[in-house]
Amino acid sequence: MLFELTLPVRNTPRPKTHNGLPHVQLNVHPDPRIISKMKKIISNLPDIKPQNSRLAVPGSIGLWLSNDIRLNRDAVIAGREFAHLHPDGSMHMCLPENLVQEVIRKGWGELYPLAKFTNRYNILLIYTPQNEEEMRIISQLIRISKKYATMTHATFVNNA
Questions:
Q1: Domain range for residue 118?
Q2: What is the number of domains present in the chain?
Q3: I need a surface site. Which of 18, 80, 89, 110 has the fewest CB within 10 A?
Q4: Full pLDDT tens readout for the chain, 160 residues
């Protein structure tokens, strides 16, 4: 299956982040309306059980795949959790490795700092959306992450 994404360059500045654990942003002041819309987006995804993340800062919402959905073990953070939404609107998510560098290069996120120790180069911190357009792009990334977590063989193409 082919999944296409046109990823523009993100126009807002990259936030400063903590380069250890917890891997969080340090200088972002999220818009509560955007965070509320992000929560609505994830709660409306089919076959997802939003619940407290066991792997993120307190208050984070884990996106867990239902037990009856086939799982790509290489595309989940742990258990059946493929992504989680932090209280500040940033997210950790698994993305196909051929999209990782594009997401980083275009300013949408950064690699999980423990990747070199865990050999997991597909886990990214996606920065907090600062406006409706960024939220739309990030909602596409969430859908790609979900699709990636449910497929064992897929090709992802970036048409940017």
A1: 34-151
A2: 1
A3: 18
A4: 445 678 999 999 999 988 878 888 898 888 999 999 999 999 999 999 888 887 888 899 999 999 988 899 889 998 999 999 999 999 999 999 889 999 999 999 999 988 877 778 899 999 999 999 999 999 999 999 999 999 855 555 555 4
